[in-house]
Write a structure and sequence with these properties.
The protein is mainly alpha-helical. It is 74% helix and 0% strand. It has a domain of 87 residues.
Length: 179
């Protein structure tokens, strides 16, 4: 371990004396002169992910080699993948929140006084699930949260009706009201 602490500073000292050339010293790196100029056309990531190779050649004013075309297409695929992931994370978090609220609301129906808290949780689950579904239509958790929220509200209504019938039948509640 002591040797490692001794060798690391020596490595950095020796590395600082080496030549500071890049790995692409023979100009094999992809360069787009139009994009390096101060008056270059600025593209967003969405636009860059959708642009055709011919349009890129018009922007740069140079013909791209096969290697450059392939690397550009790979770059576009990576950008599209990251944009899709970035866009779906927001709605998935809202869909996850709705799903968790709906599960808690459904579970609280089984707890005697938890039924009071299950109604607002079910309503919030429906609202958050609808918002997440609007942002990202393929979100399965948001769809499940909406369904569980409606089921929770339905169970609450059924349990409320059963409780009222039980009170009326077994306690003579209707007789007290004037019957």
């Amino acid at each position: 371990m002591k040797k490692l602490f001794f060798l690391i500073p020596i490595f950095f000292i020796l590395a600082s004396f080496s030549k500071s050339e890049t790995a692409f010293s023979d100009n094999t790196a992809v360069s787009f002169p139009a994009l390096e100029k101060p008056s270059a056309v600025k593209l967003s990531l969405e636009q860059l992910s959708e642009i055709k190779v011919k349009e890129l050649e018009k922007l740069t004013g140079e013909k791209l080699s096969l290697k450059e075309k392939l690397s550009f297409k790979l770059l576009q695929l990576k950008i599209k993948k990251e944009l899709k992931k970035e866009g779906s994370e927001k709605s998935h978090s809202k869909g996850n929140t709705a799903f968790i609220l709906s599960l808690i609301g459904l579970g609280l129906i089984l707890v005697p006084y938890g039924i009071i808290a299950s109604v607002p949780l079910a309503i919030l689950a429906i609202i958050f699930g609808s918002q997440a579904k609007k942002d990202y239509p393929k979100d399965k958790k948001a769809q499940t949260a909406i369904i569980l929220g409606v089921v929770t509200l339905g169970l609450f209504a059924v349990l409320l009706i059963v409780a009222l019938i039980w009170l009326a039948a077994f306690t003579g509640w209707l007789n007290l009201l004037g019957g």
